[in-house]
Design brief:
Layout lengths: L1 H7 L5 H38 L4 H46 L2 H6 L2 H43 L1 H48 L1 H6 L3 H53 L5 H42 L18 E10 L5 E11 L3 E5 L6 H8 L7 E6 L2 E2 L5 H6 L1 E4 L10 H6 L7 H10 L3 H6 L17 H13 L5 E5 L7 H14 L4 E5 L3 H4 L4 E6 L2 E6 L1 H7 L1 H11 L4
Parallel strand pairs: 3-8, 3-9, 6-7, 7-8
Antiparallel strand pairs: 1-2, 1-4, 4-5, 9-10
Helix pairs in contact: 2-3, 2-5, 2-9, 3-5, 5-6, 5-9, 6-8, 6-9, 8-9, 18-19
C-alpha cells in the first residue's frame, strides 16, 4: 500500500520494522490460538455426548492455549505501542526541524493553527496507524484466511454459505470507506482552523474586549464549531450505518448456517460437536471481517492525514543558513537600487539606494506602510526575491551564509518576544555568555534597574506566559537590554521606545550613542526625539526614498519632513 510504502517506511529503522514484524507474528500466533479453541471445544462436546466424560487433558490444553494467547497479545501490544510512540517522535522531530528551516515567506501564507494541528493531531494519527489500523488490517486478513480454512476442514458444505456472503460484506464497506476518508481529511483541516482561531482569541483577548467585539468573535467561533459539528455528524452517520447493515447481513448468514447445519446433523453428515465448533468459528470470523472492513476505512482517513504531513515536509521554501562565506564583522552596508514586492504586484520598495558605515546611526522614518520594516527584513535576509543588490563590506550579501549574517545582527522588532522564564533567561536568550555584572551594568543605561529593584527576586523573577507580570514598557526595556548586551556589528531597532515612559526614553537616548558607537545602527521611529540625533535620516514615502540627509538639512530642504517635525512639536526644531 502506498500509505505504508511512501510514508510509514521512511520513518522506521530496521529495529522498528523488526519489532513490528515480531508483533504481527505474535498476533498471528494469537489468531491461531483463538482458532484452535473451537476445535478443542468440539472434542470436549463430542467426548461428553459419547462417553459422558470430560478429559482433564482437554481442559489443560484449553488453559494452555488461552495463556499463550494472552501472553503473546500483551507482548505484541507493547511492541506496537513502543514503535508507535517512536514513529510519532520521529515525525514530530522532522516537522519541528523542517519548520525551523522554512523561510519567512512560508509563514506569511500558512496558518499557525493548521501547522500546529499537523504537528500535534496529524502526527498522533500515525500512532493509531501502527498500534491499531495496520495490525488490525493484517491480522484480520490472515484470520479470515485461517478461519475459512478451518471452516472448510470442519465442513466444506457449510463454508460455501460463508464464501458466498463474504464478498457482500466487504463490498458494503467500499462506498463507506471512501466517504469516511474524505470526511476525515476535512475534519483535520477544520480542526486546524479552529486551533488557529483559539490562538487568536487567547493572544488578543484584551484587544477583543477593548473593542467590545466578543459577540463578533463568538459568531466566527460558532460558525467554525458548526462546520466541525456538521462534518462530525456526517462522519457519525456513516459509521452508525455500517454496523446495522453488517449486523443484518451477518444475522442472515448466521441463520442460514445454523439452519443448514441442523439439516446436516439430522442426516449425520456432521456431528453436534462439529456444528458447535463451526458456529463458534463462524462467530469468530465475523469479527475479523468487520475489522478488515473498518481498517480499510481507517486507511482512507489516514491517507488525508499523511498527505498533509508529507506536503509540509516536501515544502522547499527552505533557508540554507550555512551555505556561503562566513562573515566575521560588518563594517559597511549598502542598498543599490533595491526593489521588493510581497505579492509580486505592488512594490513595497522602489529603487532604494543608500550606504551606512561602521559607527553611523541611520534613522528610518516616514508614513506607515512606506517600507521601513521591509528594509530591516531584507537586511536580515528574511526575503531573497528582491531586485537590485544589497552589499556587506562591498560584497553581495548573498555570498555570505545566512547564519553568519544573522550572528552579526541584533534585531529588536516592534513586538517584544518574551519567554515564560526568569528575567535573566529572557535577557540572555538564546545563549548565556554574559554575567550578572554585565546585565546590571547595561541595565543602568536602559533604565531596567528600577524593574529589577521592584521585583523581590530581581533577575530570578519568573515572567508568566506572554510576560503577563510585566507592563509593555518593562517588556520593551528587557528586549532592549537583551539585544544591546550582545556584541553584534549591526543593530536594527524598530520603534524601540514606543512603549516607554519619557524618563526611560530619555535615559536610553542619552546612552544609545555610546553603546553603539562602533556599530552600524538602523532606527525605525516616528518620535522625533528618537531620530533627530541620527547621523542621517532616510525619509520613505510609498517605498521611495525622498529624503536622505541630516535632521537639520531635511528640515530645510524636505517639505514633508518639515511638516512631520512641525506636526510633533508645533514648530520646527
Amino acid at each position: 500500500m502506498k500509505l505504508i510504502k511512501n510514508f510509514l517506511l521512511p520513518y522506521l529503522d530496521r529495529r522498528d520494522i523488526t519489532l513490528i514484524l515480531v508483533a504481527l507474528l505474535l498476533n498471528i500466533i494469537g489468531v491461531i490460538c483463538s482458532v484452535r479453541v473451537p476445535f478443542i471445544f468440539k472434542e470436549a462436546v463430542d467426548e461428553i455426548l459419547k462417553a459422558h466424560n470430560f478429559s482433564k487433558s482437554t481442559l489443560i490444553s484449553l488453559l494452555i492455549i488461552i495463556i499463550i494467547q494472552l501472553v503473546v497479545l500483551i507482548i505484541s501490544d507493547y511492541l506496537l505501542q513502543y514503535v508507535g510512540i517512536q514513529l510519532v517522535f520521529y515525525i514530530r522531530k522532522k516537522i519541528v526541524y523542517h519548520l525551523n528551516q522554512l523561510n519567512k515567506q512560508f509563514f506569511d501564507v500558512h496558518d499557525s493553527g493548521e501547522l500546529t494541528s499537523i504537528l500535534t493531531n496529524d502526527s498522533s494519527s500515525m500512532h493509531t496507524l501502527i498500534t491499531s489500523t495496520l495490525p488490525k488490517f493484517i491480522t484480520s486478513f490472515l484470520s479470515i484466511i485461517l478461519l475459512i480454512f478451518s471452516l472448510l476442514v470442519l465442513s466444506y458444505k457449510l463454508t460455501i454459505v460463508i464464501v458466498i456472503s463474504l464478498p457482500i460484506i466487504l463490498i458494503s464497506y467500499g462506498p463507506f470507506g471512501k466517504k469516511l476518508g474524505v470526511l476525515s481529511h476535512s475534519l483535520q483541516e477544520q480542526i486546524g482552523k479552529l486551533n488557529s482561531y483559539g490562538f487568536y482569541i487567547i493572544q488578543n483577548n484584551s484587544f477583543i474586549k477593548s473593542h467590545s467585539s466578543q459577540n463578533f468573535e463568538l459568531k466566527k467561533g460558532m460558525n467554525m464549531l458548526n462546520i466541525l459539528k456538521d462534518i462530525s455528524l456526517k462522519r457519525a452517520k456513516i459509521t452508525a450505518a455500517i454496523a446495522p447493515i453488517l449486523n443484518i447481513i451477518s444475522l442472515l448468514v448466521i441463520l442460514s448456517v445454523i439452519s443448514y447445519g441442523f439439516f446436516l446433523t439430522s442426516t449425520h453428515e456432521i456431528s453436534i460437536g462439529t456444528l458447535a465448533a463451526y458456529v463458534t468459528l463462524f462467530f469468530q470470523i465475523m469479527g475479523p471481517i468487520e475489522s478488515f472492513g473498518s481498517s480499510l476505512a481507517e486507511f482512507e482517513g489516514l491517507k488525508g492525514t499523511s498527505t498533509r504531513i508529507q506536503n509540509l515536509l516536501n515544502n522547499q521554501q527552505i533557508e540554507n543558513i550555512n551555505n556561503g562565506i562566513a562573515l566575521s564583522k560588518i563594517y559597511s552596508l549598502e542598498f543599490k537600487n533595491v526593489s521588493f514586492s510581497y505579492n509580486k504586484v505592488n512594490e513595497v520598495l522602489k529603487q532604494v539606494s543608500f550606504k551606512i558605515n561602521k559607527g553611523e546611526i541611520i534613522a528610518l522614518t516616514g508614513p506607515s506602510g512606506s517600507g521601513k520594516s521591509t528594509i530591516m527584513y531584507l537586511i536580515e535576509q528574511f526575503y531573497s526575491n528582491y531586485s537590485g543588490t544589497i552589499e556587506i563590506n562591498g560584497n553581495n550579501i548573498k555570498e555570505y551564509s545566512l547564519q553568519s549574517i544573522r550572528d552579526q545582527i541584533a534585531y529588536i522588532p516592534q513586538q517584544n518576544y518574551i519567554i515564560p522564564e526568569s528575567i535573566r533567561n529572557n535577557i540572555l536568550y538564546p545563549s548565556e555568555n554574559s554575567s550578572d555584572a554585565d546585565i546590571f551594568k547595561l541595565s543602568a543605561k536602559t533604565n531596567l534597574s528600577p524593574v529589577l529593584r521592584d521585583f523581590t527576586h530581581g533577575l530570578d523573577t519568573y515572567i508568566g506566559p506572554g510576560g503577563i507580570t510585566l507592563s509593555e514598557g518593562q517588556k520593551q526595556r528587557i528586549a532592549i537590554t537583551r539585544e544591546l548586551l550582545k556584541n553584534k556589528s549591526l543593530f536594527l531597532l524598530d520603534e524601540i521606545t514606543s512603549a516607554l515612559d519619557s524618563e526611560s526614553e530619555h535615559i536610553i537616548q542619552e546612552n544609545l550613542g555610546d553603546i553603539v558607537s562602533d556599530k552600524i545602527t538602523f532606527i525605525i521611529a516616528h518620535r522625533l526625539s528618537t531620530i533627530k540625533n541620527a547621523n542621517k535620516i532616510i525619509f520613505l514615502e510609498n517605498g521611495i526614498i525622498t529624503g536622505f540627509d541630516s535632521h537639520d538639512n531635511l528640515v530645510k530642504k524636505h517639505k514633508k519632513y518639515a511638516e512631520f517635525v512641525k506636526f510633533q512639536f508645533g514648530r520646527l526644531e
